Amino acid sequence: MLNIVIFGAPGSGKGTQSDKLIDHYKLFHISTGDVLRDNIRRGTELGKTAKGYIDQGQLVPDELIINILAQVLDENKDKASEGVIFDGFPRTIPQAEALEQLLADRGTQIDAVVGLEVPEDELIKRILLRGQQSGRSDDNEETARKRLDTYHNQTSPLKAYYEKQGKYLAIDGLGSIDGIFDLIKKALDNR
Ligand code: B4P
What we know:
five-stranded parallel β-sheet; 5 strands
């Protein structure tokens, strides 16, 4: 069993590399961003609440997102037997602590944290490019800059949190998608 967190700023390639990782290691993919966007599309109460935060470049409150994560984990026990890739979660220290507890309660733990490290100007470029293609309401320059501020203030401290646990694998996230995937595989296989 292999449980991985894929970590990085908005636009660092978490979703892109997750798609390759789930194929290669047969993992179950949980993207909190995808879960929220699906709720927005379906017009659920959760979706209505989440949209307000997402469009402002803010994080959805911890309590809400932790409950969603626990629910997704429990609903997909069978599919997650080889392990899980957590994409976009945790994004705060309380979320990381909750994840540890949720996994401990289920007799497992996080094995590695893949940190995609990408310079800020490249992040903005990628987000704006995706905005032109996907029409995601948070992929405009103003919201992207707010998302980066949110990342620096609330999410980036998790790097030190996982370094202290000896689980953080720093990956250069600049380059071709396949080249970055090779770096990730090497880091995971040689740990
Ligand atoms: P997410 O969906 O997680 O959005 P994101 O951080 O922008 O990451 P994403 O996975 O989409 O981007 P990626 O780096 O793959 O979250 C959206 C919002 O939901 C958050 O802002 C927040 O409000 C809320 N939310 C989600 N989780 C939450 C939580 N745990 N707690 C609270 N709130 C939460 O995309 C990179 C782009 O670059 C893609 O277009 C890709 O094509 C491109 N790309 C990838 N690799 C590349 C490469 N090597 N070279 C060039 N381009 C590349």
